[in-house]
Amino acid sequence: MPLFGKSPKTPHELVKSVKESLNALVKCTAGEKKTDKASEDFHKNLGALKFYLCGGEDDKEPHSEQVVALSQELNKTGLVISLIQNLSRIDFEGKKDVVCIFNNLLRRHIGTRTPNVEYIVTKQDVLFDLIKGYENPDIALICGQMLRECCRYEALAKIMLYSPEFYRFFDYVEVSTFDIASDAFSTFKELLTKHKALSAAFLESNYERVFGSYQRLLNSDNYVTRRQALKLLGELLLDRHNFMTMTRYISSPDNLKLMMNMLREKSRNIQFEAFHVFKVFVANPNKPKPILDILLRNKEKLVDFLTKFHTERSDDEQFNDEKAYLIKQIKELKSADEAS
Amino acid sequence: MAENVLVPQAIPLAPDEYNVVSDHIGELAFINDDGDDLPNFFRRVDSQEIVYQPRRRKAKLVGKYLFGDVLGEGSYGKVKEALDTETLQRRAVKIVKKRTLRKIPNGELNVQREIQLLKRLRHKHVIKLVDFIYNEEKQKKYMVMEYCVGELQELLESTPEKKFPIFQAHCYFSQLIDGLEYLHSHGVVHKDIKPGNLLLSREEILKITDLGVAEAIDWFDSGDECHTSQGSPAFQPPEIANGQEMFTGFKVDVWSSGVTLYNMATALYPFEGDNIYKLFENIGKGKYTIPDSVDDKLRSLLEGMLQYKAEDRLTIQQIKHHDWVRRKHPTTPGKVKFKSLGDDGDTLRSLSIIPYLEDLHCSDQSDEEYDDEQIFSEPHYNNSSKNNKAVVSEPSTDVKQKKKKHKGGLLSSCKQS
């Protein structure tokens, strides 16, 4: 609360003033004289709103009853949604205030309920607006911060995963602006790994579409995308929650071929990440015939290749153990006819 | 006779008053390693030379780690605070002696397994193995880990009520479940979840530690069957107490976490017994009560986690969705905080390395004290050529080295050549 000056506004008044000043700002066209005034008004009000909700610098918990009233008022007027829709009109500090307000609202608990998460569930379009925010460099990182907060809540993560908008991420992670691409990638990864059971079910039921698109990332011209995608793929496959997805992935000869090619990539880092996916194919005790055939056909070459593979990693015991295991496995491979 | 006394009798200080001495007693075992040092040990010292002084810390470097005070002691060996002299990060080093290990059933195997597992795990709530050094000469393993303030067990015991306020128990429990979810997603069954194996960092982040008896399940095993368990008896589920040959691993951790939560919230154990047979008999029967003070939500969670049959027990997912876990618990007064380790009132447990650093860089002791150190320091491996075999070139920094370093200036001495 301000130390001196006018008596503090009630939640109702505060929300109203932010809303009105936002409307005024939206109406102005750039370059007009009154734009500056409207912008100044709005940012002052926004700052007050943030202060009310999140408290000052000193980590003091704001007054809880007023905050409850404020958050109800915000939801009633849909102010948060209009703030996000007009994010690009807000200045740098103001954008950070919006992140703070939005994230703070999501975190509010009443008993076991998170009322503002429930509110967003009824206004799903906000999530899609946020996702599309990655297309606008001015607001991309700001939207990313809010999206990752949304990812923390299973209900919101579920909406995003199962929406067609999710597949936009496959484009966003490849954009040429590095910070946007990597921010998008971390949101993407969060969605696929945060809620294990949810994402496992999602990957299983949408296997074809997801891994069809994922293939593009693995073949990307962008080195960072390719490497990050490969690393995430390894993590996903080796997570026990994704057991079904893993078994399906390692039954496809195309996937095996891709990994074998990546083992020979120019970049040693990509070779190394590819090794961690490749090993799953070889270690599988129930290799389907097409996989077995490929491995058998390349048996000698693979043994030779792996023996010389990253020999300088002598201090990485685990890697060497795994490599030795793979070599042994490949040496002992027998075709189905031989075995019987 | 009054002038000449034997060293051990000549120091009437309490062991913790005179750190060098108490430190040394633990190291006595070296006598058997190298008979040549034996006569050196009982050396006559003029009583005038024995000066009562505030405890002096002897600087000891292993690799790039400068050791500080002892943080704790487990069955496997000491844990000391340490400072990474290159990055200046605070660390904890678990020192495991092969000699001690041999006396513990499966000791060596367990440590090996723990190192292997920790190397491939990386999660906020699982202790991180930062570095690993093996000194062949001294037969010691140094496991360098991220620094933690202390165990939950210690925190529990420090209070008269031996329990946490609900919000605090909730805070630790939800972190435990996050960590377990990660372990399980990597196919690791911990098998020994208990407050004694849960550490807290400075930021009160819970870290699951001690994966000595953990088991990694094969990638291609769709189930999670386990056959052996060496966890702590009071935290074992009925299937283990009854000696079943096979049981589902993940549900063992769920049970133990249930007992842990029960203990944190009530100060009691659901099952007790005068000896392990009685205890296992009681667990095997599966009859327990939850005190009336426990509210309904928590009661239902505990009952869900302590289901007699593993298949009826809650899964980690179900626990995460349980109302008690999702609830925000109001902060109540009486939060349990760490007490100071010594009697210096340092409840924040600040870095104990500073005196050692001073010793390392600014030591200006007179020569006779160097002599003192010579007796107390470890056998002089540095002078022997067999030292080359050791992974770390310098098992301990003794006086000669220290002097050399000192000349090299402060900065250069921080680096290991």
Question: Can you describe this structure?
Answer:
Chain B: Its EC number is 2.7.11.1. Helices cover 71% and strands 0% of the residues of chain A. Chain A has 340 residues and is mainly alpha-helical. Chain A is elongated. Chain A starts with 10 loop residues before the first helix and ends with a helix. The relative contact order of chain A is 0.05. Chain B is an alpha+beta fold. Chain B folds into two domains: 1-149 and 341-395, Phosphorylase Kinase, domain 1 (2-Layer Sandwich), CATH 3.30.200.20; 150-326, Transferase(Phosphotransferase) domain 1 (Transferase(Phosphotransferase), domain 1, Orthogonal Bundle). In chain B, the strands form five sheets. Chain B has a six-stranded antiparallel beta sheet with strand order 3-4-5-6-8-7. Chain B has a three-stranded antiparallel beta sheet with strand order 9-11-12. A two-stranded antiparallel sheet of chain B has the order 1-2. In chain B, helix 10 runs antiparallel to helix 12. The longest helix of chain B is centred in the middle third of the chain and has 20 residues, at 166-185. Chain A binds chain B through residues 109, 111-112, 196-197, 238-241, 243, 246, 280, 283-286, 317-318, and chain B through 116, 119-120, 181, 184-187, 217, 219-220, 222, 317, 323, 326-328.
* Oligomeric state of this protein: heterodimer
| Terminal Cα span of chain B | 47 Å
State the low-pLDDT regions of chain B, or none. 1-38, 366-417
Q: What is the number of E strands of chain B? A: 15
CATH top level label of the largest domain in chain B: Alpha Beta
If you consult CATH, what is the topology of the largest domain in chain B? Phosphorylase Kinase, domain 1
* Strand residue content of chain B: 15-25%
Largest interface: A-B, 18 and 17 residues
Question: What distance separates the N and C termini of chain A?
Answer: 81 Å
Share of residues in helices of chain A: over 70%
Family (chain A): Belongs to the Mo25 family.
Pfam families (chain A): Mo25 (PF08569)
GO molecular function, one term (chain A): protein serine/threonine kinase activator activity
InterPro entries (chain A): ARM-like, ARM-type_fold, Mo25
